[in-house]
Design a protein that fits this description.
With about 140 residues, the chain is an alpha+beta fold. The chain has helices at about 5-10, 15-25, 25-30, 45, 55, 65-70, 80-85; strands spanning about 35-40, 75, 90, 95-100, 105-110, 110-120, 125-130. The longest helix has 9 residues, at about 15-25. The chain is globular and about 40 Å long.
């Protein structure tokens, strides 16, 4: 089995997410021991953002904002779908909470899980259909 970064790269539908993780300098973190639960937006989820949003976040002067957005997609620990459905919220690595709704589908802040439990050596990926945005302080 591969780590979270290599698992996401092999899937082929996370090129924008991986490019953002590289730009933010978080590759080694997500290749680390973990465990991590990554809520991974697809390339389509990033493409649905307003025009220029991704390019703006990738600018060097927005590095801290980029890191905050990316770390808002990471939970400390390994939470499989069976664990998640028992939760109503979780605190992200970024520090803010996300809301979890589990009915016939699981949603994180209203974004639907498309594919749960993509296993990696150092955690698990849940594929989601939207980009999560932390609350600006």
């Amino acid at each position: 089995m591969a780590d979270i970064i290599d698992t996401a790269a092999e899937a082929g539908s996370f090129t924008t997410l991986i490019a953002a993780v590289r730009a933010a300098g978080l590759v080694e973190t997500l290749k680390g021991a973990g465990p991590f639960t990554v809520l991974a937006p697809t390339d389509e989820a990033f493409a649905a953002l307003p025009a220029g949003a991704v390019e703006d976040l990738l600018k060097p002067e927005n590095l801290e904002s980029l890191k905050a957005v990316l770390l808002y997609h990471v939970l400390p620990g390994r939470f499989l779908a069976d664990d998640v459905v028992e939760m109503t919220k979780a605190t992200t690595v970024q520090g803010q909470e996300i809301e979890i709704e589990a009915t016939d589908v699981v949603k994180f802040n209203g974004n639907t899980v498309l594919k749960p439990d993509v296993l990696a050596d150092n955690g698990v990926i849940h594929v989601i259909n939207g980009v999560l945005t932390p609350i600006s302080e």
